[in-house]
Amino acid sequence: MKKHNGETALVAGGAGFIGSHLCRALLQQGYRVVCLDNLLTSRRSNLLALEAERDFTFVEGDVLDPLPQELCDRAGDITRIYNLACAASPPLYQADPEHTMLTNVVGTDKLLRFAEQTGARFLLTSTSEVYGDPERHPQVEDYRGYVSCTGPRACYDEGKRAAEAMTLDFARVGRADVRVARIFNTYGPNMNPDDGRVVSNLVCQALLRLPLTLYGDGRQTRSFCYVADMVQALMLLMESEAAGPDPINLGNPEELTITELVAAIEAIMPHPLEIIYKPLPVDDPTRRQPDISRARAVLGWHPETALSEGLAKTVAWFQRELGRNVPAKETRRVARVAAV
Amino acid sequence: MKKHNGETALVAGGAGFIGSHLCRALLQQGYRVVCLDNLLTSRRSNLLALEAERDFTFVEGDVLDPLPQELCDRAGDITRIYNLACAASPPLYQADPEHTMLTNVVGTDKLLRFAEQTGARFLLTSTSEVYGDPERHPQVEDYRGYVSCTGPRACYDEGKRAAEAMTLDFARVGRADVRVARIFNTYGPNMNPDDGRVVSNLVCQALLRLPLTLYGDGRQTRSFCYVADMVQALMLLMESEAAGPDPINLGNPEELTITELVAAIEAIMPHPLEIIYKPLPVDDPTRRQPDISRARAVLGWHPETALSEGLAKTVAWFQRELGRNVPAKETRRVARVAAV
């Protein structure tokens, strides 16, 4: 990739799971990076190594508040705005649905206006959730999805759909140069152990020798993309002149049942895993798989990290993470299991 | 219906087509009425007769701004909040898509918070547009729709879907007592002659002896509900204890092609009509028909006004309206036609 020495990228939500990897990769590409994050569902610890870097600045702030002065002062240098600001896992985004919706709509609007003001290119990280519980497989970008706008996931799903609508509207009348990524399930180091996502849930349970919780019958499918691949795709999309404003799916097209995921984790762990089954949450999609033909054609991108390799890195990271900071009740449960 | 003497109803968007009829009907039901409207796409002339009434107050304001002091002063008396605030016809809501989206999301949030603060019941007027270009007919409330979230109609369609999501979220945690109406095509006096809706377009063209513009082949269907029926339904829904927060379709299930609508107009007019065909706009739904089983069961409501009767009243109103204020260029064209 081309070097971007002297240019500044703003990463809203840069302390989150994908955001923190993106900040690092942007620094490696020569960008100065300003990370704006409210630390509500992200973690400053994800930025520990980055904060030592001269070209990295962390600004604590919520995209719903007026943009911090520190950011406005650097408006003239900013050429890229990545909007990753929003809680992304169901228990976290459902904890305050009003804030989730407003973050997606008002936050996106505010950053689009900042892009209009600065002339920076804007990238919205949208989501496979815009397809809801899809009735077509795999999902192509022009499939309009099957989303409940009244259910408990709607604050996120509809918030992202609304954010896409606004982003495309800014592009349609030339107010901003935009890109829209629809991110499918992604996993890797820096995931929040508490955010209830399937990979982090299962890996943590496995490491803590707890029974693994499976929702439904385990036959629902997902596609899991390793975070390094995803970050590469986001940057390729941002820098692509050819991509244009229309949404582009980013994810791993390799479809996997949750049961197969458990088997892949079991293959890494030194001990056998126990499984307990729970009912599927409301509106939980039963199948989700990206068609990435557009990403292949326009960006020349496809995920390269094998699941076994990505999972091994993820398990190793969670092992260190849990070792440093095992939640008290889990420690007790592990102790109990260990005592048996 | 029960009388509500002494209670106050807030009607946001009360100077619009449906809003103005609603204000009148609420006054007749004994409510004091405060109409909040920014007059962007609505018309103060719709309120001419109402402004003489003691129990009616007009407050000019945009739901995106802080609620006017005059409104906050009456917070203690307000028991009903109707949210009709949003441009509703494609050329008008597409003129400023950012404002349309924010009106639906931020405006609804603000009025929901006002409902939370006052304890007033809140009714969102949503729309059949949440079904997009539906793949099932007729549409029942639990059909999730087929909506493009990136097209030029998305600012409205997705804005309303997001507004529904927020409204249901307020209900789910007991922050507000809410009702959601999905309004299908409605027509009648007080429609804006310039808003590009099919009934007003065709009636005005017919009255001005201009060729009638048909988009597509005229075989796309709509269902047209007379405004008096719609207003009755909105009030029944608001006052219903049984209805609950889930959306409820309001409209006329009688499906009609646009060509049949033209024939119905022609039957009223004293002169034959000429038709010109134009291509269908992007994302224009080809078919839309409400299933109103829920409204029948829960509210005991169905539309009662025959199309011929409603159209006759509408034509008579537009005749007076255009007589008062014929646009200059149309006058010239009419004069030219008359001279031939």
UniProtKB/TrEMBL annotation, chains A, B:
<feature type="domain" description="NAD-dependent epimerase/dehydratase">
    <location>
        <begin position="9"/>
        <end position="251"/>
    </location>
</feature>
<dbReference type="InterPro" id="IPR044516">
    <property type="entry name" value="UXS-like"/>
</dbReference>
<protein>
    <submittedName>
        <fullName>GDP-mannose 4,6-dehydratase</fullName>
        <ecNumber>4.2.1.47</ecNumber>
    </submittedName>
</protein>
<keyword id="KW-0210">Decarboxylase</keyword>
<keyword id="KW-0520">NAD</keyword>
<dbReference type="Pfam" id="PF01370">
    <property type="entry name" value="Epimerase"/>
</dbReference>
<dbReference type="GO" id="GO:0008446">
    <property type="term" value="F:GDP-mannose 4,6-dehydratase activity"/>
</dbReference>
<dbReference type="InterPro" id="IPR036291">
    <property type="entry name" value="NAD(P)-bd_dom_sf"/>
</dbReference>
<dbReference type="InterPro" id="IPR001509">
    <property type="entry name" value="Epimerase_deHydtase"/>
</dbReference>
<keyword id="KW-0456">Lyase</keyword>
